Each structure stands twice: as structure tokens, then as C-alpha cells.
Amino acid sequence: MAQMNMKEAIRDAMRVELKNDPNVIVFGEDVGKVGGVFRATEGLQGEFGEERVFDTPLAESAIAGMAVGMGIQGFRPVAEIQFVGFIYEALDQMFVQAARMRYRSGGRYNSPIVFRTPFGGGVKAAELHTDSLEGLAIQTPGIKVIVPSNPYDAKGLLVAAIRDNDPVFFMEHLNLYHAFRAEVPEEAYTVEIGKANIVREGADVTIIAYGLMVHTAVKAAEELEKSGVKAEVIDLRTLLPLDIETIVASIQKTNRAIVVQEAQKTSGAAAEIIAQINENAILHLEAPVLRVAGPDTVYPFAQVEDSWLPNVDRIVKAANQVLNF
Amino acid sequence: MSKLPYEVHSEPVTPLSVLSPEGEVINEAYMPNLTDEQLKEIMYRMVFTRTWDERAVNLGRQGRLGFYAPVSGQEASMVGSEYALNKDDFVCPGYRDMPQIVWHGLPLYQAFLYSRGHQHGGQVPEGVHVLMPQIIIGAQILHATGVAMAFKKKGEKRVAITYTGDGGSSEGDFYEGLNFAGAFKLPVIYVVQNNGYAITTPFAKQTAAQSIAHKALAAGVRGVQVDGMDVLAVIKAVSEAAERGRNGEGATLIEMITYRFRPHSMADDTSKYRTKDEEGEWGLKDPLTRFGKFLEKKGLWTEEDTARVKEEAKATVNENIKKAEATEKMTVGGLIDSMFETTPAHLEAQKADFQ
Q1: What does pTM read for this prediction?
Q2: Domain at A42, CATH number
Q3: CA distances for A316 relative to A37, A222, A260, angstroms
Q4: Fewer Cβ atoms within 10 Å of its own Cβ: the N or the C terminal residue of chain B?
């Protein structure tokens, strides 16, 4: 089995699907010869040609809108939006047009599109390159939202997303692209969309996270263990559909939970998860479910980025709060 | 003022007309190649569309239709442009462009269902190549661009056509679509039906560009301007554009100068933003009158024919509105099930609340 970092695993997912299905097509800004600004598509144009993997003019709405048009003609576009902050330019096409194609055509057409975008902080990137905009996406009916946390999941989830007949917003954390290597099968395989993963078992408190925050949560769990607290860490993998069953089963065991997200605190994924916990597991709770999140400000320039982002200390503190409630 | 040698400029364009307002052929060289039967069919469709429009406005007032955008005045550009296509070409309409997709094959009762907010309205039958009317003014421009990209990649000799209005030509998506089509040399036709008003905002306040057709220059696609009240000119221009697309010569932007005789939608009061004189002047260019005179002179059409088609149209509209009204109402459960190919658990749970 090959050792791959997350970026290589993502590239490999596109490679195996370009190979498997002639309708898969990859496009976006700079994805061709150079292989994208993060080299996530490096080598794909060389292997599959300009017909299958190509650069577009610089226009996010048109990238997303062209994907919608190609989708209704049988292609399976994998469209890259170069940085997450640029999706605002494409919101209508992604969240309105692609996401409601199945509904407004009474099931006649669909949008088998993957919108890939890098996101996530801690890398000292420029303004609007790192924000966590998954909250916008999960508020949108008709689009699935995936945030992988490791190379194996990233490849399996992306293969599943490319094969999915509904639009998928696939968010790749910048800080995970090169963070570590892991074993990744070279053949095509899928990781089920909508199925969370328990990455660390525990009986005292459940820490729910996704993307980079899974790793911060695991570090926090290790820290908590020093004081005898066994934290269970759930990697959600997908935010929509949300695997509430796994969350509830964990809370039935631990009776306490916190949710960690990089995004600003108000009305995001964590708020939704807590609402669903209330709907499904309120009688199992011994304490309110707390959020560890970024403050409700614009995402900052590089200077205060590290203290802005949720860290181990804040997660440990929140866990102790619910433990001592 | 003389132009600077380094200044980019363009020259005025003259819209293509084939017929004078009196129905005389004034540009024989641009007469599309059509048989007498085809000419009569085009007139049939325009009269049918006018009658349907009149009925639809009344049905709207009676509460039997929902959202409806009147089309009278624009029959030449709508009916003519669709007539110039092949059945396997793909139509991406703007919100007013129901006639094109019906003449392209969408059953009329589904048009009424769409208007009434029923999702089956958009369940386009297999073999009919249309999207439903688009509400976001420029979004369909990009869908047509993507459809054209698909045709090009598959090596199919088909074209995509999309419509917007003069207001739509101010949208960012309009520029992005044109630019993509130029860069990728796509088989797509962008029709701007310039009817002089974006709801109530007059064209003079819409753009300072010399014309909408000129906007093609910047994108490197072909731009033409057509007398949109002259169905033969419309057919000529769209046929040419389609042929160019099929031959790999790329996209065409067609500005059709037209007019809507009625309000933008069922709600606005035209007297607040238009004059009677203006409406009267455009009335003289009525596409049905002009083409009707041409056909009468050729002995192909009479007033009796118009009366007969009107009756036929009324009966067909009645039959189809009844069919729409008799169609089982959509349900919240059905709506929920149309969000994803397989309804996820959280939506199954939400569905249970409505059963």
C-alpha cells in the first residue's frame, strides 16, 4: 500500500476516477499544466490530456455554472474553486442552480458535480483564502458537504463524491495537505458519505470535530487523559448528511459533549449539531453541550490567527466545563 | 472629436431586417430559405403564441396560473429563434421564454404546471432538450455555456441557445459566459431580447455601451443585431449562428430589438414608465401584422386563417389548463424526496412530520 499525504490522496482519487469513467472531467483555474496552486491536480493533465483536465478563464461563477451545464449533459465535473473565499462569486451556481436542479426539473436532471475547494486556517495565507464556509453550505438544501481529516478518508470520500449523483461541496483543509502521510490503497475505493468515524474511544465526554480540528481534538483528548478523563473523539467526515446516530450513540455512553469547529461560533455546523443532539438525546445529557469555535469576527490576517483558532487549551477547558457542570 | 490612434472603438451597427413594417421584402439577400408550408407554420405558431399569451394573462387574473411573464410583442424573436434550431439543440430560457421551450417540445400543460408551482412542470420528457425558465437573470447563460462545452467535448453537432433581456446583459454571468465561450470557442448562441425595459428601467439607463451586440467584441465572439419584430430576420440570424456553432466557428451574441406590449409581469403599471406614443409606435411594428401582410401578399394567409388559429389555440389552452388543474397536487413528501437521489435519514425524519 502506498504512503500518501492528503493532497496526494485527493489527486489519486481524481486520477482513479478519471481512469474509471470517461465522463469525469476536471477543470478550474490553473489546474492544468501547473496542477493547481497547491498541486492537487499535478500530473493529471499530462496523464489524461487537455480534453479531460483543463484550465479555465478566471471566473468562479462561470466555472460552477459551466459545471451545471455539463452535468445535465452527462458529464461528472470536478470543478476546483481555487480558494474558499472565492466561492462567494459562485454561490448562485453552486448553492442555487446546482443544488436545486433535481427539484426544479422534477427529477429529470441532476448535478453530479464535485466542487472542490481548499480552506482552513493556521497557514498564514492571504485574506479570504482560509475561512471556514461550511455553515453556508449546510444551510443550503440539495448539496452534500464533506470535510476529510486524513489521506485515507480524503481519497475514499472524494471517489464517493465523484460517483455521487448529487452536488458535493468538498472542503480540503490547507493545513492537512502536507501534514502527514498514511497508508492509502492505490486502487479505487469509497468511504461512505454520511458516516462518521470514532477516532478515539472514551466514556467520559464526546468531542465532535471535523477536518483539522479532529487532530486538535485528539491532542486535547490526550491532554485530558493525563487527568484521568477518557474522551471519545468523533470525526464527522461529512456535515451533510450528518451522522447523528453515531453522535447520539456516543452521548448515550458519555452523557457529555462538546463540538469543535474552526468557523465563527454563531449559527454554524456546531450550532446545528447541538440542536440535533437536543432533539435526539436530551435525556442522556448531564450538561449543556458547548461549542469551541472561532469568535464572530471576520477571519483575521495572519497576526492573531493562531490565538483566534480553537486550540488544545480551549478544548480541554470546555471539556472540563461540561465535566464539572 | 477625432479618435485617438490608440483608442479602441467600434462602429454603429444596423439591425438586420428582411421585411419592412408593411411586409415588403427589403433585404432579399437575407431572406431565409423557407418553403410556403414553413412560412405558414411560423405564422401559425406566432398567432397561437399571441392567443395563448392573452389567455394566460386572463388565467393569471383568475388565479388559475401562478407566476407568468407576458410575451406579446416578442413572438418574432421567440418563435423565430426556436424555429431556426434543430430539435436536438438545447434551449436555456430566461424567465419570459416559455414559448421557445414549448415549441421545442415541452408539453403545454407542463408549462402551466410550472406556472402553478408544481415540480412536475419541470420534468421535461426524454428527448426534449430544454431547461425550465430561469429566475436568476443571468444564470442560464452559464448553463448554456456548459451544455455547449459538453457538445463540443462529445463531438456532437449541436448548439445551445440561451436567452436573457437587456437587463440580463448587465449581469456578471453574462460577461463570464461570453468570455468562456470566446476562450473555448463554444457552439452557443446568446440571445438578448432587448425590449427596451428591465422591468421599468429604460435601456438608456441600463448601459452606456453603443449596443448590446457590441459587447461581443470584448469577448471575442461574433455579435449581431437583429430587428426582433421581424421573424424572417430572426430566423436568418439564428440559423447563421447555429451553423457557425455546428461548424466549430464558435459563439454568437444576437441582440434582438423588440418590445413587450404588456407589463413585465402581471403586476407593474406600464403607464408609469412608458408613453402612449411609444407604445403606439411599437404597435405599428407588431410582428404578427408585419409577417401577416407579407404572407397575405403571397396568398399564403388570410384573416380567416388567423381567426381559425385563434380558435384552435384557445381550445388547446383550455384543454391544457384543465389537464394541469387535474394533475395531482405535489406533496411536501415528494418535494423532500426531490432534494437528493436517495433521501438521507434526516430528511426521511422531516418527511414523517408531513405524513
Answers
A1: 0.97
A2: 3.40.50.970
A3: 35, 10, 11
A4: N
